[in-house]
Design goal:
By secondary structure, this protein is mainly α. The protein is built from 16 helices and two strands. Helix 1 runs antiparallel to helix 2 and helix 2 runs parallel beside helix 5. The protein is globular and about 60 Å long.
Length: 420
């Protein structure tokens, strides 16, 4: 890589564009089971609970992979890790064209795509932000977090229309193709670090020394961070609140929103349009959250975000299930969709230091995906047992309100040096 700038600007901005696109593609893949839940049910006769198991497996591994992916990026490099992940996601999507049994759905859309997409998530964002930026970290992290919603914005309405008109097979082909398109982009345009192309991070002062990269065994590095984190009150509270974040976003709304709207007579394309509205407003809300994180106590932001999210989820089952009736919810909820990411990373960085924060944040993100997996699975089981999503959404709203008060009780400790 020989680039030092792009169009006269710091090359960190080009890196932001590449990572944003990769995160966008991964978000499209992770949202696909929500689009195909009803088509798979119709095509194979599988129950919502069975399909939800595959979605929950993918979400769980998506989160569990995070800390190991962060350690692998330090040991083997960011570019190599991201490219392997893209191959896994593309291959698993295309392989699902040949599935005939539900265990194959769990294998492709659960296990393989879950591990692959787990490498292109918040831990990648945290690694890039802390490696390429000294200033404006909250803003860039907010932009990266918003790429998830932008992936929803771009993919969901299009994939819903394709599934409705042509079936589920063309949907997985589109998703697999998007992963393969990203491969040469990452290979050609993503350096390992600013130092690799002879520049300092964005906003660095003269004489800036880059944070040391941990080159140890990724498994040992990840588990050592977990052991240290379990002794930290801030880590435990961040993990608990982020569990609730996953429980109330991609696990519940991201996986079951289209199916919920289908239960109330709304077509898939219209329901996908609502999720797209959420994605559009989350692009604004999460980017703004990053800007606010650079200026306001992140604990207060988390209290505000979780509290409003809880109230909106309690309201949803009683809403008027028309496109216009749900548009207000889509706007309000979209602004808050994953606005929790920048303040959560900010607290982790202040507590554990910029160099080590991505690995600790990986474990915190793992709790997010455990919560999402729990919501994806139990909401599907509850729907199968009761014929309604009412209980699932009300419970999710109540736990979000509890998380708001947990966030206020976090104590931010100064960053500690890495152990020798």
């Amino acid at each position: 890589m020989r680039f030092r700038s792009v169009f006269g600007r710091h090359y960190a901005l080009a890196v932001v564009a590449v990572i944003f696109a990769a995160l966008l593609a991964a978000a499209g893949l992770r949202s696909t089971p929500g689009v195909l839940m009803v088509p798979w049910e119709n095509a194979f006769g599988w129950s919502r609970g069975t399909i939800s198991l595959a979605a929950a497996t993918g979400i769980f591994l998506f989160g569990l992979t995070g800390p190991f992916a962060a350690a692998a990026m330090q040991r083997f490099g960011v570019r190599a890790t991201v490219m392997v992940a893209l191959v896994m996601m593309g291959a698993s999507s295309i392989a699902s064209l040949f599935m005939t049994a539900s265990w194959q759905l769990v294998l492709t859309w659960g296990v393989v795509s879950g591990i692959g997409s787990g490498c292109i998530t918040n831990v990648l964002s945290a690694t890039i932000v802390n490696r390429w930026f000294v200033t404006n970290r909250g803003l860039v992290m907010g932009l990266f977090a918003a790429s998830t919603s932008t992936g929803t914005l771009i993919f969901l309405p299009v994939l819903s229309a394709i599934a409705q008109d042509h079936g589920w097979q063309p949907v997985v082909l589109c998703v697999g193709g998007a992963m393969m398109v990203m491969l040469p982009v990452v290979w050609l345009l993503l350096p390992e670090s600013p130092a690799a192309i002879g520049i300092a991070p964005f906003g660095a002062r003269d004489g800036h020394q880059p944070d040391p990269v941990m080159r140890g065994n990724p498994l040992k590095t990840a588990f050592s961070a977990l052991g240290e984190g379990l002794k930290s009150r801030a880590f435990l509270l961040l993990a608990a609140t982020f569990f609730v974040c996953g429980f109330t976003t991609n696990g519940l709304v991201g996986t079951h929103m289209i199916a919920l709207c289908h239960d109330h007579g709304m077509e898939a394309v219209a329901a996908g349009g609502l999720l797209a509205i959420m994605g559009l407003f989350d692009l604004v809300g999460t980017t703004a959250s990053g800007w606010l994180t650079d200026r306001i106590d992140p604990r207060k932001l988390l209290f505000f975000y979780y509290g409003l999210r809880g109230l909106s989820l309690i309201y949803l089952p009683f809403a008027d299930f028309t496109f216009y009736g749900l548009s207000l919810f889509a706007v309000f909820y979209g602004l808050d969709w994953i606005a929790t990411v920048p303040p959560t990373l900010a607290i982790a960085t202040r507590t554990f230091g910029a160099a080590r924060a991505p690995i600790f944040f990986g474990w915190i993100s793992a709790s997010h995906q455990v919560g999402a997996a729990a919501a994806a699975f139990f909401a599907g089981v509850s729907r199968t047992a009761t014929g309604s999503y009412l209980d699932s959404f009300v419970v999710a709203g109540l736990v979000a309100v509890v998380a708001a008060f947990l966030a206020l009780s976090i104590r931010i400790d100064p960053a500690r040096p890495a152990p020798a």
